[in-house]
């Protein structure tokens, strides 16, 4: 009787079985494809409609601080012409004794956008907490 010897080391299979990995990846792909459109939902917000009337009432008060920008880029605080460098200090002087730091801005329809933004920057340097932008009411 002879002894049979098994050579198991020569028959070792070192190939990776990729089928389970592909199955898992396909399931993950399907899950992400289903979930992704749900993540892009936008939030709908109903804006108040009465706020425009409140702003106009506050802007028509005697002590309201209004700033106007004309089409040629000049800024006016009330009826006085001011430069963008001086507007912050003059507004802070007017708002010194007020509790609500609110300023209203009117800009001409054809005013340079950069000039309007420079005026807004000057107003913000005065420590204004609320800036109301005034427009003309259009009839339908």
From TrEMBL:
The keyword Transport applies. It comes from Granulicella tundricola (strain ATCC BAA-1859 / DSM 23138 / MP5ACTX9). GO terms for cellular component: plasma membrane. This is Biopolymer transport protein ExbD/TolR. Gene3D superfamilies: 3.30.420.270. The chain crosses the membrane at residues 21-39. InterPro entries: ExbD. It is found in: Cell membrane. GO terms for molecular function: transmembrane transporter activity. GO terms for biological process: protein transport. It is a single-pass membrane protein; Single-pass type II membrane protein. Belongs to the ExbD/TolR family. The lineage of its organism: Bacteria, Pseudomonadati, Acidobacteriota, Terriglobia, Terriglobales. Keywords: Cell membrane, Membrane, Protein transport, Transmembrane, Transmembrane helix, Transport.
């Amino acid at each position: 009787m002879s002894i049979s010897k098994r050579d198991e080391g020569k028959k070792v299979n070192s190939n990776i079985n990729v089928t389970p990995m592909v199955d898992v990846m396909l399931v993950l792909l399907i899950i992400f494809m289903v979930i992704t459109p749900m993540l892009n939902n936008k939030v709908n917000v109903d804006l108040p409609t009465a706020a425009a009337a409140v702003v106009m009432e506050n802007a028509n008060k005697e002590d309201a601080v209004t700033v106007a920008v004309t089409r040629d880029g000049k800024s006016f605080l009330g009826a006085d012409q001011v430069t963008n460098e001086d507007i912050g200090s003059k507004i802070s002087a007017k708002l010194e004794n007020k509790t609500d730091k609110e300023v209203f801005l009117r800009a001409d329809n054809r005013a340079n956008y950069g000039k309007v933004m420079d005026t807004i920057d000057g107003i913000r340097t005065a420590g204004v907490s609320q800036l109301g932008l005034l427009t003309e009411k259009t009839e339908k």
